[in-house]
Amino acid sequence: xxxxxxxxxxADRTSLSKKDVESAFGAIFDTIxxxxxxxxxxxxxxxxxxxxKDRKAKTGRHPRxxxxxxxxxxxxxxxxxxxxxxxxxxxxxxxxxxxxTKKxxxTKKxxxTKKxxxTKKxxxxxxxxxxx
Length: 132
Known about the structure:
The protein has three helices and five strands. The chain is α+β, with helices and mostly antiparallel strands. It has a three-stranded antiparallel beta sheet. A two-stranded antiparallel sheet has the order 3-4.
């Protein structure tokens, strides 16, 4: 999903116009950028935390030539997902797995029932044969 699709989805869920949602998103993203540029942290309960992290300078290799390169130190933005967001994402995976597991179990149960019915049918056929 890209920014336009996100704006459309939020506009559909709310009574706001796409233009209003777009300006609100713009303000939110600009504020996040400003706060992170001041090296401050933003915590949104249940969603996650935006922060800034310093990376040390390190030595790397050019993949094509194999030459050693010096990678400079830099500051990068970091996002750490909150527990509720993690649970929602994990729940989506779990529900897909549960659905697949339930389907497999139902298939196995049907097969076992058919096998059981076939076994009973054979047993009654044998019993009938003995009586004659």
